[in-house]
Amino acid sequence: MLYQFRTKLNKRWFDQRARGIYRTPMVRRDPASPVVVLTMLHHPDVTMFVVAAKSFCRFLRPGRFVVADDGLLESDRELLRQHFEGMEFVPTSQTRSPRTPRGGCWERLLTVADLNRQHYVIQLDADTVTLNRPDEVLDCVAANHSFTLGTEGGQRIISCDEASRIASGWQGDHVQVVSEQALTRLPPEIGTLYVHGCAGFAGFRPGSISRERVEEVSEAMACVVPPAKWAQWGSEQVTSNFLVANTPQAVVLPPSTYPFWMPGVDTHSARLVHFFGTHRFQGGRYVASAVRLAHELSAAAA
What we know:
alpha/beta, 7-stranded mixed sheet, 11 helices, 15% strand, globular
């Protein structure tokens, strides 16, 4: 109860301090770009997403902006349309599949898959801030390579057998641990590679995944992991990691320049920082980054 209260308080403080982002210019789309910037969003995280998307789109202007709408208010949609040209909304209720779990960001991955037929789709979590030019990401887009965030425990693409051996030394029954321990039991025709990455920021080159492919991987995993466990939050990230790893020439972004925030992390040379939930508001760096972005965008417009 105390944790939830502090989280809500911190969130209100962030929204208040970052309100200057709404005085910055609309982000225009580039009709010639094959890139779609996508996120899954619900009402409490709207300001966070505006910060995330405006910080990223300083360096890459997409052809489309798409939100997997997970419970936005109509006022939220109107606000987002005012800040992102041509913003589109896809209700999560329309993207579900009977062959995958529901919730836990699965609707986000299925929306990525639906758009991926013709577009390079970048999944951008609302709790990210792009601080500097993301050269590796821009190179991936130019070279048509997929990418995902690396982690301290996953900085390269490895075989499923090796990933399973590494995970066998981990404790706990989190779905990602249990799933990675079971990777070695997957049929090889499903895929043989994996990366212990993060789905919070990932790029999918055109045609690299499909709804059918997502469903195929999910069903295969549900055969080697208890279905009730596979239905838990975190299974979508396992699937995203698996799909990126099995895409030829995929890139794992180094955590040295694409870090996860926690107090003490040096962000001066960071390209993009993931202010994930556990440490998001600790140390004040997230709020400071949002305030600085609003000032920079306003100054550039002036």
